[in-house]
Design a protein that fits this description.
Elements (H helix, E strand, L loop, with lengths): L6 E6 L6 H15 L3 E6 L15 E5 L9 H22 L3 E5 L1 H10 L7 E4 L11 H10 L5 E4 L2 H6 L2 H4 L2 E3 L20 E5 L8 H9 L9 E5 L5 H10 L6 E5 L4 H7 L2 E4 L8 H8 L4 E4 L5 H4 L7 E3 L4 H12 L2 H11 L2 H4 L2 H11 L5
Parallel strand pairs: 1-2, 1-4, 2-3, 4-5, 5-6, 6-7, 8-9, 8-11, 9-10, 11-12, 12-13
Length: about 375
């Protein structure tokens, strides 16, 4: 049954190069493409434009409220302004439902919509236990989440980690997965090549990956490792690369607009995270048919990867196990080929139509 056209307001802090932003762009574009009225509200300004392409029918409303705060008082004033302007935007747009991504944004949406009689669907985008938010925001989340229309999490593990009184409103909706697009004229990359993708932050465990790569046997010396992304740890990771003597074998190329080109040439993908929400980069690599190794961190990799069937799972933060798995696959191209081919099925299990169907069940009644 086709859902009727709806007025939707989607809210996210910004639309930069991140996993939550990519999923928000996919959902917004899909809903606009089938006739829903979709407004995408961000706290950032109109520049730079969204990193991910949006359907022409998506109306972007940039509130331009992202400013660095030099004190707690300035931060409080900034959040009060966000509340007021977001509430004004919701009144102007009069959506039938609001969908919010991210713990801080979720709290602000619930407070802004108070008394407006607009159902708010909040979505947690990362493991709620492993990722510790500041005490004030934890308190506000405890106070506001029970008033959400629905609470969306991305994995079964994340659902079980929710407080019991939240679960009656909670639903598991994974992210949509599709093979990443490639573009013509891409430059050839060094081979054999291992690829990792993510923000350069402690969560992603790239320090562990560098140590595991350094511990590989001499037979793997021809391999190169490219870690795509930007973040606060770039300087410290580059220092660790120098300390480990890997400057000629490891590169940090930054954010890549066409990551499909890199995955098309990758011989191996490695996810070394300490924790996740739903690992989009891993899912994309699997959909692209790349042999993958992932840490069995909370939460997500274990719900994508079946060890030795469509990839490899290793214990979280275990440098020795990660290095051993890398060495085994690096020395066995036949195993890489088999795992990569089996991994492609993830794109069918988490296809965009399937995931949209799960969202449709919780938003508004069908015709």
């Amino acid at each position: 049954m086709t859902p009727r056209a709806r007025r939707l307001a989607l809210v996210i802090a910004g639309m930069g190069a991140g996993g939550a932003e990519r999923v928000m762009a996919q959902l917004a574009s899909a809903w606009a493409g089938r006739g829903d009225t979709v407004a995408l509200i961000t706290f950032t300004g109109p520049q730079p434009p969204p990193f991910y392409e949006l359907h022409s029918g998506v109306v972007l409303r940039a509130l331009d409220l992202e400013r660095p705060s030099r004190s707690w008082l300035a931060a409080a004033a900034q959040n009060w302004r966000r509340l007021l302007l977001l509430r004004r935007a919701l009144r102007d747009l009069a959506p039938e439902v609001v969908i919010s991504f991210g713990e801080h944004t979720n709290v602000l949406c619930l407070l802004s919509a108070w008394g407006l009689r607009i159902p708010v669907v909040v979505s947690e985008r990362i493991d709620i236990i492993a990722y510790r938010v500041p005490a004030l925001w934890r308190f506000l989340r405890i106070c506001t989440y029970p008033h959400a229309f629905r609470i969306v999490v991305q994995t079964r593990r994340a659902f079980t980690d929710l407080p019991r009184n939240w679960r009656r409103k909670a639903v598991v909706i994974p992210n949509p997965v599709a093979p990443p697009r490639t573009s013509e004229g891409s430059s050839p990359l060094p081979r054999p090549l291992a690829v990792a993708i993510g923000r350069l932050v402690p969560q992603k465990g790239f320090d562990l990956l560098l140590q595991a790569f350094a511990a590989l046997p001499p037979s793997a010396n021809s391999w190169r490792l490219w870690i795509y992304g930007e973040g606060e740890q770039r300087a410290s990771l580059e220092h660790l690369r120098r300390t480990l003597g890997l400057e000629d074998r490891v590169a940090f190329p930054g954010v890549c607009a066409h990551i499909g080109n890199a995955l098309a040439q990758a011989d191996l993908f490695v996810l070394s995270s300490r924790f996740e929400g739903f690992p989009n980069a891993l899912a994309e690599a699997m959909a692209a048919g790349v042999a993958c190794i992932a840490t069995d961190c909370p939460s997500g990799p274990g719900e994508l990867v079946q060890d030795r069937l469509n990839g490899r799972l290793v214990p979280c933060a275990d440098i020795s196990a990660l290095s051993k798995a890398m060495s085994q696959l690096m020395s066995n191209p036949a195993d890489r080929r088999i795992l990569g081919e089996c991994a492609r099925a993830v794109a069918l299990k988490f296809s965009l139509p399937t995931i949209l169907g799960l969202w449709d069940r919780i938003l508004l009644p069908q015709r």
